[in-house]
Amino acid sequence: MPGGTRPLIGTYWKATEIAGKAAPTQDAKREAHLVFEAGARFSGSDGCNGISGTYELKGDSVRFSAGISTQKACIDIGTFDAAFRAALKGAIRLTITADRLELFDAAAKRLALFTGRAQSVRN
């Protein structure tokens, strides 16, 4: 990707910051991330539970569906999972610059920052 911007679809977007706080260091099997798929679907993890749903993208305007998630109890991440889901719910704008995806709310406040990389075989 030298000199380019990662595509939204097919990139593994690892959460690095949610609501102004750094993402906790986690086992790679459950780290907070998003993967956007063709057909306006997304999947990933909020750092505890698997999540999936649909999204609508028009220009840089974005809207995520409520989606579905697993219901595991994770005691070692504090409120990060809830903040992750709140960021998706509150997002109205999405930007991608190089390997950074950012979600913003209606007041132009950054809700989430993700770093992109090529999808690995396990995803």
In words, what does this structure look like?
The chain is mainly beta. The chain has a single domain (11-118), classed as Lipocalin (Beta Barrel), CATH 2.40.128.270. Helices cover 9% and strands 44% of the residues. The protein has one helix and ten strands. The protein has one helix at 80-90; strands at residues 11-18, 21-22, 33-37, 41-45, 50-58, 61-64, 68-69, 93-97, 100-104, 110-118. Strands 1, 2, 3, 4, 5, 6, 7, 8, 9 and 10 form a ten-stranded antiparallel sheet that branches. β1 and β2 (21-22) form a beta hairpin. The protein is globular. It starts with 10 loop residues before the first strand and ends in a 5-residue tail after the last strand.
Could you describe the largest sheet, including whether it forms a barrel?
Answer: 10 strands, antiparallel
The average pLDDT score comes to 87
State the shape.
globular
Main structural class: mainly beta
Distance N to C terminus: 20 Å
Domain module count: 1
State Rg.
13 Å
Could you name the ranges where pLDDT drops below 50 across 5 or more consecutive residues? none
Give the DSSP E fraction (strand runs of 2 or more residues). 35-45%
User: Can you count the helices?
Assistant: 1
Stated plainly, the CATH topology is called Lipocalin
